[in-house]
Every structure is written in C-alpha cells, then in structure tokens.
Amino acid sequence: MAKVTFLWHLHQPRYRTGDGKAHAPWVLLHAGGEYLTLAYALRETGVGGQVLNLTPVFLEQLLAYQTGRVQDPLLEALATPASELPPPALKELVRWAFMLHPRQLSRLPRLQALAGQLAGAKEDEISSRLSLSDITDLQVLTVLAYAAPNARWEPSIADLMQKRAGFSQEDRELTVRWLLQCPGKLLDLYRQLADSGVEIATSPYAHPLLPLLLDTQVAQASVPPPPGGFPRFRSREDAAAHVQKAQAFMAELGFSVHGFWPPEGAVSQEAVKLYGEHGVTWLATDEGILAASLGHPVSGETGIAPELAACWQLCEQGPVLFFRHRGLSDFVGFKAQELPEKEAAQKLLGAIAATARLLPADGGLLIALDGENPWSSYPEGGATFLTSLGRLLTMTGELRLVSLRQRVAEEVPRNLHRLHPGSWINASFATWIGHEEKCKAWELLARCREAGGAQGGESWLVAQGSDWWWWFGDDNPTLLAPLYDRLFRMHLADALRAAGQEPLPELAVPVRRGETPLTVPLSRSWPAPVLDGRTTTYFEWVVATWLEAEGFRLALRADGEYLWVRLEAASQGKVPLPVGVTLASGSHVIRYVLPVDRPGWCAVDRILEAALPFPGGNVLLVVEAPGVRFPAWGSYRVALMEVDEP
C-alpha cells in the first residue's frame, strides 16, 4: 500500500528589530488566521501522515507576543478606543486593514464599504472620512478578515461575524483579547498535535539559504552569472550556527526534532554534509532537485518515476533525502483555490490515489508546501478544504498515512551519487542571487561580516533570512518591498551594534530602486472593449495609456472594477504567448497566465485583450511575455486617474 505524507512549512521572517518594535504585524494577524486554521483542522480530523515544519524564527515571534516582548503599532491601534486614537495610530490601522486578498475582503461587506469610503484618500483626509463608529468597526474587522475561517472553532469570532457591523467598544476589547491569546494558543496546539502523533520538524534558525551561506559560488550551477560574477560570501561558521541554534531552540520548547525542511528547499552537497554532521536524520526538498541530479524528469504527464517514490542518501551517508511531488503540492498551493473547497479536497484525494496506484508497493508520496499562504485565497479560507481532506484521507483504504520519521525507520534509501544544488523554484538559486539588488545585498552582508557583524548574535542570524532576498529584485513585486529592504539593513545595523561596532554608513542607503510610476485612465462611462482579439473600433482603446518596449505595445485602462489589458506587436506580428500579468496589492500577489487563467475574459487573435479584476488601492504591475517585459526592470506603481467629465 502506497504511503503518503503531508509536510506543512510554517514560517515568518523576524519583523521585530533590536528595539523590540515589530515593523509588520503579520505574525500576530496570521496567528489568528491561517496558522490557527491549519492547527484546528489537524486536531479536528486527527489525520495521520502529517509533518509540521515549525521554523524557530516563527516560533520565537509567537513567544515574544505571548510574553509581551513586542511593541506592535497595529496592536496598539487596535487596543485604543476610537475616540482616543491619535492620527499616526489611525494611519497605522488603515495601512494594514486592507492588505488583503480579495476573497478575505469579500467575506466582510462592511469592510468593503469602508474601503470605498477611503478610496483615494490622502493621509490628512483619513480622519475626516471616518466617524468614530467607522473606526471601531474597522478595528474589529481588521482582525475578522483573518479570523473569519476560524468561526467554526471560535464562538466569540462566530458571534462577531453574525453581528457584521455596528461593533461596540466591548466587541473591540474582546477582539483584541482574543487576538492576543492566539500566539500562546498556537504554541499549545502545536504541543497537542505533537503529542497526538504529528511529527514536528524544523529549519535552520532564521531561515537562511544554507548553500549560499556556505559559498555563494554554488549558484554557478543554475544561475547565469551577473556582470563581474557572483559576490563572494562564505561562512561555514554562520551556517552551522543556524542549525545548532535551531536544534537547541526546539529542544527548549520540548519538541523532539529529527528532520529539517531546508529553507526554500535549498540544498547542496556541502549543505547536506553539514546537516549530517549535526545529527539531522532527514531532509526534504523539491522533485526538481532529484530530476536535475538524475538527469531525467521524475514526474509529469506520463506518470511518476519510481525514483520519486523512494528515499535517497547522498553517497550512502548523511541524512535521508525525500523529494516532494511538485504537481500535487502545487495543486494545494495554487490551483485548489479555484474550486469549491469540498470539491477541491475530493479532486486532490482522487489525484493522490491515482498517482499512488502507479507507485511500487513500498513507494511513498510527499506533498509539501507552505502551511499559511494558500488559505487566504480559498473560497472559505481553507477550513472546509482541510477538514474535508482530512476526513477523506482517514476513510480511504488505498493509502497509508505515515510521517517522514516513519519512512526513515522503514525504508532502505537508494544511493544518490550527485546532488544538484538548487531550491524548490526551478532547481535554481536565481530568486536569491544574480539580480543586481540580490547581489548587492550579499555584498552588504559580506562587508558587515568583515566589520564584526558575525559577533552580533541573533540580529546577525536574522539578517541572513531568505525572505529579504526574496523581495529584492523584480521577480516578486510587493508594495512592502521598501519596508523589507529597511528591515534587512536594520538587522545588520543591530548586529554591528551588538558586536560593539558602529553601523556602516552604506546601511542608510536602500538596496532597492524605486518602482516606475504609471498613470492609468479610469472611466466608468466609456464603453468597454469587445474582447475579440481585434481592434473592433478605434474608440475601444482611446481611453488608455500606451507603452512601448522591444517591438511591442501595451495599452491599459480601468473602469473601477477591471483593469483592461491589450498587448500587440508593433509590426503586426503575432503576440508571444503566454502573457503573464502580476498584480501586487498589499502583501498579496496575484499572477495571471493569459489566456489560460481568464477563459471568457481574454481573447487572442491579432492582439491580446483581457479584463482582470483590479484589487484597488496601491497596486504594482508587471506584464511579461516571451521576449518582452513591461517595465524592463522592476514594476509599475499604478495610479488611476478619473477621466470622466463631471
């Protein structure tokens, strides 16, 4: 009977700097939201074969909230009565209240209405657009936007969801008390789950790219070298410190840890050897690494190769290596959200069972992904999907649900002669090195180490977290990129101060460039384009802004609900497909692959025309196709300009 394992990777970078201030509230908000959803669903269903990969940098922040060691400006804004809220605190509240996936916003009509009231408001206009009752509602709804899927387990949240609007000061106080309890509640739930048989795994302390810490030159195997080559950083001491500190931290919390999910699935032969030297029993990463190591695909339309169903060991020693099934993992992470949640659970179970029938009798499937990010984009916040999937898994007689620790005990690993160095993204390190900004960050890290930063304790380690490099460059646009840039440099400055050194002057200079401003006309009265892939009339795109790059023309217009996109070749050639459109609003990034992702709302003939739901507020935009990219570097910061005559 084929074996199946689910690995949920739970992580947040360190938002708290040395002065105790949290510069982003994501740990607290998600503690009341998606993290709680997953923990409750696992407890309710009791389904086996679950691995929770809890990163120390995430757990440490839960502990800091639980023990009151965090100064969180949003929390202070939530806890202050509307009548006493000073303008900076109101600004902080509004800043974070609407950084939501559209589905989170759609569950709360009152929050949508408040977003409409504030549309286009400048900072000094916010207070004049909100009454005291509006502000109180906003305080409560900011929490409910995350907590709503947990109403089935949390009676106080269910009561507030029933009330919908017109919240009292008592409601606000209850909401804040509930939210503050969530970090401690999560830690208790993780201990309960561990006691019930869920395997607890971890990652190096602050979630660094261990292969790149060991030697940035390892990137040469998968990343085109930038002009001048890769920056040089090499510290086995730092890499070992992350592994040792993670093991010690998890032991202090009472968790018995045998395996690690390497941050970003990043592995190399030297990194695997280091894990082995510290007694790590198993590691898990992406199937692309195995395929690149063996020299042939291990899954696809033709089925699944036996190699992916096996566990491996590098040169017959060190940790046992597991490789996740990318298609099944990505279905949970990126595709299931498009279906009703019960239907998505049934479809996933069917796909798992069908894949399992192709495996050897003792083969295993690993489904591994982020345990927080997907759920905000699910129709019901993931709660129905997770509980339905858990029940279906417990009822099926075709699958054996096992942890990775169990697989290590039961299986004899195959011998892997060579391990390709790379991450879960295209078996490459390109997301973390190669781009001008990413390389600049490595250079800055190296200079700070030379200046004594390595003696800076935790601040030095958290500055090495993979997330800072994720947001550098132009591949992951976000409105919060300047904040993450600043946090990276603040951690380095804190490390130098802790080491008794003055921060380097260059730490005051942003690593990132700014985004390109772009004004897009907004008309609610001008007729919408006919989506037929042709210029139906001259007037369709008169109310649009036009851009040119590399022999192609891009037109953009808006109508308050949709962003209308047109792409054409300047010389009457064919439009290169597929066309990717990325819209980043707040912390959420929505990517469309056209025409695939917008059936009925995209047409391709002589030109490509599409209508995309526009999230509103501050939005970053990137449009790209084979051989063309708008803008050539970075992203556009979109500003809508009303063009209808009054």
Briefly summarize what is shown:
This protein is α/β, with parallel strands linked by helices and 646 residues long. The chain contains 23 helices and 23 strands.
Descriptive report:
The protein has 646 residues and is of the alpha/beta class. It folds into three domains: 321 residues, Glycoside hydrolase 38, N terminal domain (7-stranded beta/alpha barrel); 73 residues, no CATH class; 126 residues, Immunoglobulin-like (Sandwich), CATH 2.60.40. Helices cover 38% and strands 18% of the residues. The chain contains 23 helices and 23 strands. Strands 13, 17, 18, 21, 22 and 23 form a six-stranded mixed beta sheet that branches. A hairpin with a 2-residue loop joins β14 and β15. α3 packs across α11 and α5 packs parallel to α9. The mean pLDDT is 95.
Which helices and strands occur, and which strands form pairs?
Layout: E1 3-10, H1 26-31, H2 34-45, E2 50-54, H3 56-66, H4 73-79, H5 87-97, H6 102-106, H7 109-118, H8 126-129, H9 132-147, H10 155-163, H11 169-195, E3 199-201, H12 210-214, H13 236-252, E4 259-260, H14 269-277, E5 282-286, H15 287-294, E6 299-300, E7 303-304, E8 312-314, E9 317-324, H16 326-335, H17 341-356, E10 364-370, H18 383-395, E11 400-401, H19 404-410, E12 414-416, H20 436-450, H21 458-462, H22 466-471, H23 481-498, E13 516-522, E14 545-549, E15 552-558, E16 562-569, E17 579-585, E18 588-594, E19 602-604, E20 608-613, E21 619-625, E22 628-630, E23 636-642
Parallel strand pairs: 1-2, 1-10, 1-11, 2-3, 4-5, 5-9, 8-12, 13-23
Antiparallel strand pairs: 6-7, 8-9, 14-15, 15-16, 16-20, 17-18, 17-21, 19-20, 21-22, 21-23
Helix pairs in contact: 2-11, 2-18, 3-11, 4-5, 5-9, 9-11, 17-18
